[in-house]
Write a structure and sequence with these properties.
The complex is a heterodimer of chains A (about 500) and B (about 170).
Chain A: H1 3-14, H2 17-35, H3 41-48, H4 57-74, H5 76-81, H6 91-102, H7 106-139, H8 144-161, H9 166-180, E1 183-184, E2 191-192, H10 206-214, H11 216-224, H12 243-264, H13 271-285, H14 297-313, H15 315-321, H16 327-338, H17 347-350, H18 352-378, H19 380-384, H20 388-407, H21 410-428, H22 434-457, H23 468-492
Antiparallel strand pairs in A: 1-2
Chain B: H1 3-29, H2 45-67, H3 93-117, H4 119-134, H5 140-160
The chains are: A mainly alpha (about 500), B mainly alpha (about 170).
Chain lengths: ~500, ~170
């Protein structure tokens, strides 16, 4: 199928009101979800997932992608107005956004955040369209040993960079892998940790685990400390962003977008390091570097560009290799699975219409983001004032209905509650939840590829080192582990990377 | 609590979990056919490898906790009531733990009630109790939301998505 044919097939799939409506509603839900202190983009995507069950695959996935894009931008609104970033990635936006708000320039900061976000989002989406197909065609030649080493590398980097310590990240990933072994064995069909309960034979429900891990702990944290996330919103002020501001910051926006694309395409890095690196580079290169940290509009632009530049790029490993780069893309994998789709190189062969439909939808999402974002900035006070004692119980009830709806099974609701406590304890003990969830998703794939490789070689582990690609991923895994250990030792000595804060800014997701 | 103590506790827990899995859990809860040609293909192999690695991670955490200087991590989690950021005036860690315990009981009660009372009515009770745990008084808006949210969700899931929401044994909704 030629490029034009694929494009037309994609257009035929999304060229309807339903798909664009889903995208627009998704962006709106995301912006509101990201903007509410205590909620987060992750939580918004997780809570929207149950509503996609009855939709067509493309509509459901576009809805979730809209929530993702909107949520990432939405996080910057409370970051600027009440100094509480809605997402960890918006922490860098606080550095100049809040001082601007204190000076009565919140509207200008938010406007620049929106313009930079939309530009970065567009660049990131174009990068996805350019690179995902190329990477997928390369990955088509992967056999089980190559996939095993690729997933192992992805898990290593995710475990290593998601938290403050490699060992805690590794422990989290190992627990996720162990939980993924529950159910019937993939080859022999024998029981593993099922305790004779038929509910456990199919393994633990993915949606129950993810909502339990990412929504319930927020409710428990709010019960634990009902005063958290309270803050006084600043007024927008009279100044608004001008084209001159945008032109002045354009270089930083493009640079930040590129940083976002590069870091976002590596599984596990995420948006927060990208936002800080983009901010630090902008400060280093700007003629107004002395104003950074005191309310410089270019600082807001750089942070938001780095943050949003990741959004499209995280889909590169997801669509091309089937490896989710962060928690939100892991949830989106769930949406693919629910609709009987398996992201990865074969999707570019079997479901090319869906792939191109998604590409078209993503490009349009930047426009929706601009429109919805402009309204959301002015309406923030409405969502910020929703009483927590209404919002969080409502989230709890939505979780119960949503998780039950997956399989019409109350057992899944119990799993969600149990995982909620696991997630809460992990947060208390500073164990990152992202490696747990991603390992839980990739666990069956990792084991399956390992055992298929062993079947191919008659049990010889030499097959895992049999090709240049496997060597490449082993080398990357080794380099990653060495780099993380080195960074850990440097951190123990009190050194920090330039541009990165010594201590992370507290966010509503932490 | 210091980072050292936290790391030590985590390490010990991981090590104990690994030992329990290797000694009792895997032999009793994972079954494998007797005619597996290679050990790497056995259903036991993967859980055993993961259990060993969990033990190693636990050991690593214990070893690193000895090297740790014992920096206080009290400001790591400002959401915690015992970390200096008080949620409500006069709130103590004991109150916070009691609220958490109440939340755990609520979850168990909800699981018990759902098949008997139905999901909608249970959700209304769950909503109100959770709201009560967050603020001592229930304003009218919360009461309205406690009734409306479960009903709206029921309407969507039962009538739009076609999900068979549990109705319970007493009052059935259309």
């Amino acid at each position: 199928m030629s490029f034009l044919d694929s494009l037309m097939a994609g257009l035929a799939l999304v060229g309807n009101v339903e798909a664009f409506l889903a995208l627009g509603i998704g962006v709106a839900i995301g912006v509101v979800g990201g903007a509410i202190p205590g909620m987060s983009a992750t939580m918004a995507v997780a809570l929207t997932l149950p509503f996609t069950f009855t939709m067509t695959p493309i509509t459901g996935i576009l809805l979730l992608l809209g929530v993702y894009k909107g949520g990432i931008f939405g996080g910057s609104i409370p970051a600027i107005l009440i100094k509480t970033p809605g997402t960890p990635a918006s922490s860098a936006t606080v550095l100049d956004g809040y001082p601007m708000a204190e000076k009565g320039e919140a509207g200008r900061a938010l406007g620049m955040a929106l313009w930079a976000s939309c530009t970065a989002d567009l660049i990131s989406n174009l990068a996805l369209i350019l690179f995902a197909g190329w990477l997928a065609s390369f990955a088509l030649s992967f056999r089980p040993p190559e996939f095993f080493t690729l997933i192992l590398f992805s898990l290593t980097i995710i475990a290593g960079v998601s938290g403050n310590s490699l060992l805690r990240g590794a422990l989290s990933a190992l627990l996720g892998l162990l939980l993924a072994t529950v159910g019937l064995d993939l080859i022999y069909g024998t029981n593993r940790f099922t305790f004779g309960d038929p509910n456990l034979m199919g393994g633990l429900n993915f949606i129950a685990v993810l909502i339990g891990l990412f929504a319930i702990p927020e409710i428990l944290s709010m019960v634990w400390n009902p005063g958290a996330h309270d803050g006084q919103a600043r007024s927008l002020g009279k100044n608004w962003v001008t084209f001159a501001d945008y032109r002045k910051s354009f270089k930083s926006i493009v640079r930040g977008s590129m940083i976002g694309v590069f870091l976002g395409s590596i599984p596990g890095i995420g948006a927060a390091p990208s936002a800080f690196l983009s901010y630090s580079e902008a400060r280093r290169k700007s003629p107004d570097r002395d104003n950074f940290g005191k309310g410089e509009v270019e600082g807001v632009a750089a942070a938001e560009a780095g943050n949003n530049g990741v959004a499209g790029a995280t889909l590169i490993p997801l669509l091309a290799l089937g490896v989710p780069g962060d928690v939100i893309t892991a949830i989106i994998v769930g949406a693919f699975m629910i609709h009987g789709l398996q992201p990865g190189p074969m999707m570019f062969v079997m479901n090319v219409d869906i792939i191109y439909g998604l590409f078209i939808g993503l490009i349009v999402s930047s426009v929706f983001l601009f429109l919805v974002g402009s309204v959301a900035i002015r309406g923030f006070r409405l969502v910020a004032d929703i009483p927590r004692a209404v919002l969080f119980p409502a989230v709890l009830i939505l979780c119960v209905y949503g998780v039950y709806a997956v399989n019409n099974n109350l057992f899944d609701v119990g799993v969600m509650f149990a995982m909620g406590w696991v997630g809460f304890m992990m947060a208390r003990y500073d164990v990152p939840a992202a490696p747990f969830l991603i390992a839980f998703i990739l666990g069956p794939l990792l084991e399956d590829n390992f055992r298929q490789a062993m079947l191919m070689s008659g049990g010889s582990p030499a097959i895992l080192f049999s090709s240049p690609i496997t060597w490449f991923f082993w080398a990357l895994t080794g380099i990653t582990v060495a780099a993380i250990i080195r960074a850990g030792l440097r951190a123990a000595r009190g050194e920090t990377l330039p541009g990165l804060p010594a201590k992370p800014v507290q966010t509503s997701e932490d | 609590m210091t980072d050292k103590v936290l790391q030590m506790r985590l390490g010990i827990t991981a090590l104990l979990a690994a030992i329990i899995l290797l000694v009792y859990g895997i032999p009793n809860w994972v079954s494998a056919p007797s005619n597996v040609p290679k050990i790497v293909l056995s259903p036991l192999f993967w859980p055993e490898v993961l259990a060993w690695l969990t033990g190693l991670a636990g050991l690593g955490l214990i070893l690193f906790s000895w090297r740790d200087k014992g920096v206080a991590t009290e400001d790591r989690d400002p959401a915690a009531p015992d970390s200096g950021a008080r949620g409500r005036s006069g709130d103590t860690p004991r109150h916070a733990y009691l609220r958490l315990a109440a939340m755990a009981v609520l979850m168990i009660v909800m699981m018990w009630l759902m098949p008997r009372l139905g999901m909608v009515w249970t959700a209304m009770i769950g909503f109100l109790v959770t709201a009560l745990l967050m603020q001592p008084r229930i304003p009218i808006s919360t009461l309205v939301a406690a009734i409306a949210v479960p009903l709206v969700l029921y309407a969507f899931f039962a009538h739009v998505a076609g999900v068979a929401i549990p109705q319970g044994q007493f009052v059935r909704l259309p």
